[in-house]
Amino acid sequence: MYKNATIKVAPGATKCYLGEGPHWNPVKEEMLYVDIFGKAVLRYIPKTQECYKVVVDAGPVSLVAPITGHPNKYLITIERDVQVMEWDGVSSTPTSLKKLATVDDHCKTNRINDGKCDSRGRLWAGTMGYEPAPGKLDAKKGTLYSFDLDGTVKKHFDQIDIANGLAWTADDKTLYYIDSFSYRVDAFDYDGESATLSNRRTAFDFKANGVEGIPDGMTIDADGNLWIAVIHVDPTAGKKLGQLDFPTKNMTSVAFGGPELGILYATSAEHFLSKEELEAQSGAGALFEVRGLGVKGLGAGMEYKGVV
């Protein structure tokens, strides 16, 4: 199905221990991503093949998004905090950090895992319990939140294992969401005005479709189909359309970027790989680019438009 597709490491991009959260910023033509346990935010510029990395010593950094009207400020999450990072985009240390909100005070070993901004510029992000080793997780400790433009934090539901990928449809009426250990993509009716979810149902079941692995980060293409690090899914039919084969097994998230959103970028990780696996999988932790898929992204990553 993808006979014209080419997969390669993005030239010049910095490897990560646990790469995640790819976000295409069309204003600066850059791919933002994070190294969660490297406590870092990275900006990769495909045109020049340059990559800049800022290390945030405060804790694991799990997502990044630009902030409207503030070209040197980025919304990031550090452990259980939502923060604004001021960064010149080049230096190895941030200019400043400002905390906006903290969640999950009842469980201080939790951390925010994944999130994105919706079309109105509010952040949606979910948490997960402590995970000391693969499959060893403080189960059902996570919660999905939204962070409104005025700073209000809204809890949507809890009992989550690992809050993960999010994607909205073109009409902004459906939100797709992943809890990794449910092995499903769920769909919700989405009201963007009030930031409410309803009518939860299964859009794609990994086990029922014979798909191995754990669902992780996710994006949506212009055809309304999902890419889930890294399988291709029709969520309306609940069917797998195809799969991309990378030179490393620990793929973490995906986002379309580049000219006309025609390149699929994919993050990966060394995290939880054995010494033998790392030796055999030289691409572990790399940022990959996939060209020639014949599809384009539905839209670039949304900016945060709330209080800073």
Provide a descriptive summary of the structure in words.
The chain has 308 residues and is mostly beta strands. The chain has a single domain (6-291), classed as Neuraminidase, CATH 2.120.10.30. Helices cover 2% and strands 48% of the residues. The protein is built from one helix and 24 strands. The mean pLDDT is 97. It is an enzyme of class 3 (hydrolase). Keywords: Calcium, Cytoplasm, Hydrolase, Metal-binding, Zinc. One of its GO terms (biological process) is L-ascorbic acid biosynthetic process. It catalyses: D-glucono-1,5-lactone + H2O = D-gluconate + H(+).
Intertermini distance: 45 Å
The coarse silhouette is: globular
- The ordered H/E elements are EEEEEEEEEEEEEEEEEEEEEEEHE
Q: Quick one: CATH class?
A: Mainly Beta
Q: Indicate how many domains the architecture comprises.
A: 1
